[in-house]
What we know:
- The structure holds two protein chains of two kinds.
- Chain A is built from 28 helices and 18 strands.
- Chain A is α/β, with parallel strands linked by helices.
- In chain A, strands 16-17-15-14-13-12-11-18 form an eight-stranded mixed sheet, with helices on both faces. Chain A has a five-stranded parallel sheet with strand order 2-1-3-4-5, sandwiched between helices.
- Chain A starts with 7 loop residues before the first helix and ends in a 7-residue tail after the last strand.
- By secondary structure, chain B is an all-alpha fold.
- Chain B has a single domain (4-76), classed as Orthogonal Bundle (Non-ribosomal Peptide Synthetase Peptidyl Carrier Protein, Chain A), CATH 1.10.1200.10.
- Helix content of chain B is 63%, strand content 0%.
- Chain B has helices at 4-15, 21-25, 36-50, 56-61, 65-76.
- The two termini of chain B are 13 Å apart.
- The chains are: A alpha/beta, B mainly alpha.
- The A-B interface holds A 33, 55, 58-59, 62-63, 66, 91, 93-94, 250, 252-253, 256-257, 259, 263 and B 14-16, 36-37, 39-41, 43-45, 48, 56-57, 60.
Amino acid sequence: MGHGPRRMSDRLETDGRVNASAETPSAALRRLAEANRLVSDFPTVCGIVARLAGPELARAGRLLSRLDPEKLHEAHPGLPTVTISLTGHGTIGAMVPALTAELARHGMIVRPVLAGFDSYVQVLFDADDHLGPARPDITVCVLDPQVIFDEVPVPWRPDDVERVAAAKLDLITNAAGRFDAARRGTLVLNTMTLLRGHSAQLVDHRSRARLGAVWRDVNARLLRLAEAFPSVIVLDLDPLVAAAGTPVRDERLSVYAKGHLSDDLLAAYAAEVGHVARNVAGRTKKCLVLDLDNTLWGGVLGEDGVEGIEVGHSHRGEAFLGFQRVVKQLGSQGVLIAALSKNEPDLVRQALRDHPRMVLRESDFVRVIAGWGPKQEGLDRLAAELGLSTDSFVFADDSPFERELVRREVPGVAVVDIGDDPALHVTALLRDGWFDTREVTEQDLARLASYRDDVARASFLDTFDSVRDYLRELGVRVRIAPVTEAEAPRVAQLTLRTNQFNLTAARLQTPEVLALLAEPGAAPLAVHAGDRFGDQGLVGAVLTRRDGDVLRIDNFVLSCRVFSRAIEDAVLLTVLRQAHEAGATAVVAGYRKTSRNHRVADFYPRHGFHETDRDEDVVSFRHTLTDLAHLPGHITLDVRTDGSPL
Amino acid sequence: MITLEEFVVLLREELLLPLTLADAHRDLHEVAGWDSMHLLWLVGVLERRAGCVLNVADLFEARSLEQIHTLACSAAAPA
């Protein structure tokens, strides 16, 4: 999987600009702003913004928030545009530039919709009236301690706070429930931090402790909304406040301008929302690619030897061990872990296998690439072997040289700056929620094993003369059945994560899949696959609906891990045959072009569909069901679509 | 302490507004592109630059950039 056309060096050659690395990111941004090229060069702008932090990132946000999102979208239709509506109790205008900067970091455009001051309850209850035709992908409702304390009488006791908070939480719960039922996309809420300015108003420790307990109950109720309503995400602000000593608020701005949360905290909040937006746009990172020497262990393996590297047993060794534990923890939740190291392969294998204190072993890695080639080539190779795009990689390396090289040569990769002190590796890795997702599915838990099965399949392939022989021996099994409620999260995840075999790139969250299950006429089908090496689980979905005597295929997604086995052919033919048997006169389907799904542009025409309409990026097809091809012989099919309208 | 001219340049860079010296004497309502959010950002920017605490209530009462400059300078000057 090459990424040649995107190489920074190519771009620099074609537009004749000077090497951008000579100037600071802020200066580069200023230069583009002065040349009036922020809109036209927005992808470059995004790359620059990805290098900024703190006040510089905030300033970039202020600059970019003045650009017209519609013009950006028009100029760069390939970049995801996410509509985010903002509401809350206090002044939250600072969220707009903060979100603009965060989404730009991720190569995305934000279309902000700012609701009126303190209108959050109305917005959540009557989203249609307040948000109009905007249909936000994400609604952010910023809560702050004044939500409660503005209504607490003076003088007050903890019981008063408890009473006010209970009523407020009832209201918020109802509002969140209404929002969830209306299926208006994702709702983001947050916990509220207890301030000393409130707790210290109570002079006795007993009451102060009771206030603390009451307050935690309030936050616990807020956090549980995420369990009650599938479309709700509740951000816990406590870890954000604790992380960098971020002040919760500036008392002066709170009093004078009703800005109840500080700009720094809103910026940290926006960073979290940025990762929610990544997820909504189907851009969650999938694979963590780690350097080894001085990243995963201390020292240089080639010089210090397997016995000499630092893992446990020393201050630095303990720090590396701690980092390995965190990597293993990420891996246990479906994040693929790969190693990419300039080292002798045998020595690396030996270290991972034989070092007595190593937490991460060979079996924890989906791939270990050790050698002397440039790291950007290693990343391309890894992408090709895993069937993933380099855009889904997070790369962590202690060498500034390697990081810079990867930033410049493979721009879609997120680069984590690992420093010299291993005690700070975990903080660096977790600072950004690269792998944040709505929920972890069973598929996530089994992901490593199934990618490793692919390795076995690949070497098995080497022993056959033809692909046909290989497929016959592979014993591919495919089961097609209506999507069940329990499968809805996985189907949603497939629409969100799958980019290459995704015919329309329509992204669905779990509640939207659940809504489809209940919709009359709609028949979402789940595709399960397996073979002699293992079970791949739910690998695809076909979203069909009966429309009179026509069957519509709204979308078809298939995990890239089961490509090249003709599974997609078997599934489509099954859908066509079933439609025919059920008396349908035609099957209609569409293809919407994205930057990543070109390999399926001819999927429908290859299977006897003819084109009926063509817009710029959308092609419509129709199959008249008069001539149906044979099913591929090497696949054992198990079709369970009884009772569906097919 | 910085001159009013330098102050306008600083604002131009930090707030990314096309400000001129003439704007400094205008009522804030008449400064093109100005809105109340800028004042909130300015508090953070000026306090970080000057390393001192501004009187925000006074700042919110100011009607022109010139008045803001005077307030910022008096806060930054050693007592």
